[in-house]
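yo, Sec63-domain-containing protein is done. seq:
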Amino acid sequence: MAKYTFDENGDTFNFFVLTTLAIILIPATYLNIFKKTVVAAKKNTCPCDACHKKASRAAAPRKSSGGVGKKSIGILLGWILFAFVAYQVYITPSPEVLKWNPFDILGVADDATPKQIKSAYRGLSKIWHPDKVNTDLREEADAKMAEINKAYETLTDDVTRENWEKYGHPDGSRNSMTMSIALPTWLVEAHNNFWVLAAYGIVCGLMLPYFIGKWWYRSGDFTKDKIRTKTMGVFFKQLKETTNAKEIVEILSLAEEFKEDIVSRPTDEAALEKLGAQVNTALENKNGEKFEYSKKSTLPASLKVLTLLYAHTLNVPVEDKDLAQDQVDIAAKTLHLIHGMIQITTARQWLSVSLALMDMSQILVQGLYFHDSPLQQLPFVDAEAVKALKGKKQVKSISQFMDMDREDRAALLQEGVTADQVDQVATVAKQYPELKVHKAFFRVAGDNIITPGSLCTFILKVSAVAPGQEVEEEDKAVKSAKDDVDALFEGVEDSEEDEDGNIKPKKEDKTPAPAVHAPHFPGEKKPFWWVVLGDHKNNRIVVAPTKIADVTSKPKTIRVQFQSPPRPGQYSFNLFIKSDSILGADILQDMTLTVLDASQLPPEPEIDDEISEPDEDSIAGQMALLKEQGLAAAAIGGGQKGAPPQSKGKGKAPETDSDSDSD
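structure:
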């Protein structure tokens, strides 16, 4: 039977504590030192100067926000405890593991003869036999004599000796194993029971329920999208159907996330005052407006957020390192909060506010101001260059800019631009795709028309094409199923012919879209698009926005289901496809939905549910014939005795039965 022992000198227990502390402290220390609130940009492949500066900012170590937090203190105390336990391990001698040896117990050599073993046994028995010792040594003599007897039996009995030589113990494998529990002996001693139970009660009865309850109640403070419920409540109260872009920024500054997560420092006031003056100057130079705080933004955290967001959209450099660090955090949080706002406005079916929030997402990612030209996303294109492009060449988009000759593009850029920088502009321009709509229509499954209240599906096929890139043409060799509306509706529009001549759908291309060019946004940004069906005249959303991602040069099909209007007629909708990251790449297209009365549906084809009779030559036919003849004979025999039997041939059922079937 295995023996269980406790750690008497604390050696094993110290190793257990040391390992546990290392598992906790090493990752906690790494995250605390190298923590970043945003994802750092990956290896920079863009040649523009702004992206190089962004990569340098991402690679630079972040300055600690003022003061030492509770987490840092806890980690420091943990390392102090780790050092103390490590010192205890160092000074505590490891226990010497002694192997049970019968020769040593009897005091004979390993090659002793049976006669020598017997002689040694007798000599020790005369010394340690309980009857030979004093009364006060009898207990020790009993234990000693038991060991002597076991050693003598091990060396004289063949089976016992074989067990000892094989397992190291005379009783065999079961008793040769000793299990050590990594708990110190003092933990299980009787006089410490009160303190051990008290500690157990405090940890399991008080601390564990407290932390679990704290976690539970804290989880209720956030929505499923990790936005504070108080923030969503503020957004719900403040957002109106007529809210404009500037009011959106003010409402964003009221979010609880900024009050809780953004650190307030004594030096912020002077730095913010200086930055606010710079923002005011930039705003006056841009459109003659003044930068003023509204009555909504009165808290210090809200004023800081408002100032830093305006500085971000106006490209005003933030000289204070602490504020620059806060600006990075605020920009990342604000983009997430905008999505929460869109949930509220779409639930209320407000079209204009929802579109304004989507525009806000674009200018936040690109670091531009309201109503700035999409051309200003390119390097070396300032407001003067935009005026020249719009005035002389009627160029308003990046794709139109790329259609110009290289010399014309160079002439309209900022003064002093080199030839390499002109090429740099062209390289950056190719990172801004333009959306192409290949197909857009409504359809009801199984019907050729759309009836009132039916489950209608809006089908959209789009691709994102870079300026100068040709749109991929569909394969003409593919059979007509490719252009068939039903095939597109069922998701097999990208069909192809296999080796056997069968039409099969192509495998969906899952190539991810590249990251968007956003030199002023912290971290890497993966683009996605909102697809919205709305009524611009009534300012109402007809179909809630659908997010689509990974739109590449290969056409992608999107299906959105909704219930068709309850009355017949023609309904005019507006299709909006809005980017969350790129200015000037949006799509606005008019759509018409024709709803016809259900009476115009074609009649359903009759289904022939009659079962054909089996052939007489088959086994089923012979069985059916015998059955019919047997039924007929029983009917005749029961009603008319002596009636002649029916002639051979196909039996017939009674006329009443067939009539009921024919009806």
